[in-house]
Amino acid sequence: MLAEQRLLAGQTAELGALLHDLATPPLTHIGALEMDEFMPKRQRKELAAALNTLLASPTFASWRQGLTLDIAEWMKNDGPTTPVTIVSVAHLDDEERALVLGVLLEEVLSWVRTLLGSQRLRGLVVFDEVYGFLPPHPNNPPTKRPLVALMKQARAFGVGVVVATQNPMDLDYRALSNAGLWCIGRLQTDADRARVVESVAGGEAAGGGEAASELTQVLKRLAPRWFLVRDAHLAEQTLLLQPRWTMSFMRGPMTRCETQKARGAGRSASWLARGGI
Asked: What is the pLDDT of residues 165-204, one digit of tens each?
């Protein structure tokens, strides 16, 4: 409420600016209650002290630096190359990762809803190793709602979503049912194969698609570097694909210093570490 009042007045609504408003609120009432009845002065002082401690923390300072979280600005394409923005959260703990990615995905969803409908691909959201961020019911991390909404709605605005995981059993069924393209590699357990087969072929057996039992057998026989590709938009929906060999130096996540060097190397990608959120 205090932040909204400041924004409506054309003022800044940074956390530091709100401390004064907590001590001497510009509002006299919150709904039908007076301010002191809604939140006594003592509680407001305690909240202001807690926020001031947070602002003074060196750890929190890094969260206030870096690029603005403006998805439209990230997606601008003023040159001949395709813009790429890479957000790295490898250095954060699990709770911080869920928080940062949840905020980011909500911003992406808000940006998508400002676009006009399109059949042309405008953007692609790629989420590598989605395990733990899109879990089945009843788990509900901050990343789940925007991810499911993007997979359901973003295609109508020309924005695609690609998620990758080694554990299909740990994905929400709504995400699985909204996937139009599947690239399925070797699955080690019967439970993972059953979950994938149920999602891919469950509703297509009556329409002439692969029978579930045949699809299960194909998945069991997949050799290394072979993938079963399933595209709902192709007449021949099921294909087998063996990609060519690629050489890559898998050295592990980049450190913050390496990320800063990559940002300054003149590359087209924007490397965002903790200070970039």
From this structure: 888 888 888 888 888 888 998 888 888 888 888 887 655 5
Q: State the first-to-last Cα distance of the chain, in angstroms, to the nearest integer.
A: 24
122 CB-contact burial (10 Å; exposed 0-12 / middle 13-18 / buried 19+): middle
Mean pLDDT of 38-61: 83
Nearest-CA neighbor of 179 among 127, 255, 218? 127
Q: Is the pTM of this model over 0.85?
A: no
Concatenating the DSSP letter of every residue in 41-61 gives HHHHHHHHHHHHHHHH-HHHH
The reported pLDDT for the residue numbered 265 is 63
- Main-chain dihedrals φ then ψ at residue 186, nearest 5 degrees: -70, 130
Sequence-distant (≥ 6) Cβ neighbours of residue 178 within 8 angstroms? 148, 151, 152
SS3 114: coil
174: three-class secondary structure by DSSP: helix
pLDDT, residue 190, reads 86
Q: Which residue has the tokens 């979280």?
A: 69
The angle formed by the CA atoms of residues 199, 217 and 244, to the nearest 5 degrees, is: 85
| Listed range (80-94, 157-171, 252-266) with the worst mean pLDDT | 252-266
> In whole angstroms, what is the distance from residue 71 CA to residue 81 CA?
18
Q: Residue 250 and residue 235: Cα distance in Å, rounded? A: 37
d(CA 141, CA 80): 38
Contact 130, 176 (CB under 8 A): no
**274 touches 257 (CB < 8 A):** no
For residue 160, give the 3-state DSSP assignment: strand
Angle (CA) 103-177-74 rounded to 5° is 30
